[in-house]
Amino acid sequence: MDYENDTAWVRGMLYPGENLLWSGKPGKGHFFRKEDLPMLPFSLLWCGVAFYAQYTAAKSGASLMPRLWGLLITCLGLYFMFGRFVVRWINTRKSRYALTSQRIIVQVGKVSKSMDLQYLPRMTVTRFPDGNGDIRFGDTVSARRGSTGYERSSFADAMTELRNIPDVSNVEYRIRTAVEQAYRAKQSE
């Protein structure tokens, strides 16, 4: 794919004086994640119980309402087991990432979000053996001081993670360099 067409999506979002430093999208593979492991036994158990309840309700001639609730619970279990992977696959195919001289931009479908380089949270890089990797900004779960004491907040949103980036070390270097340059520019003001 030619570079100009691959970056056309982000060119219209650039601020005056902002330069595009890198653009990419998730690579193929690395679909199953470490965070999926705890969900597997739960989803298997959920589906097993839901299927058994549906079978028992059908065999005993239960009324329509319990059978509809059972169908809803079964569909939820099937989502936990398979549907979330389909949603991840669709979102991965529609994801694009860009690093500019001022921001990191993430677009999933038609929704774009950006993070200012001067205020990026802590960056964590996960490298896979093939050179691909994930770059996550912030902690998956963190504690912050709120008005009622310490509150937990989650940052596990698509905006804060660049998933399965080819040549992740190169992209990490580019981000660190861009952050350093943005910081120096802010200091010189």
Ranges with pLDDT <50 over ≥5 residues? 142-146, 149-159
Strand neighbour order, sheet with most strands: 1-2-3-4
Please write the string of helix (H) and strand (E) elements: HEHHEEEEEEEEH
Treating each run of at least 4 consecutive H or I residues as one helix, how many helices? 4
| CATH-derived architecture of the largest domain | Roll
Percent in strands: 25-35%
Average pLDDT, all residues: 83
Counting structural domains, the number is 2
As a whole number of angstroms, the C-alpha radius of gyration is 22 Å
According to CATH, the fold-level topology of the largest domain is PH-domain like
Straight-line N-to-C gap:
39 Å
Overall helicity? 40-55%
Q: Which word captures the global form?
A: elongated
Walk me through the structure.
The chain has 189 residues and is α+β, with helices and mostly antiparallel strands. The protein has 2 domains: 3-27 and 97-188, Roll (PH-domain like); 35-89. The protein contains 4 helices and 9 strands; from the N terminus they run αβααββββββββα. The longest helix has 30 residues, at 64-93.
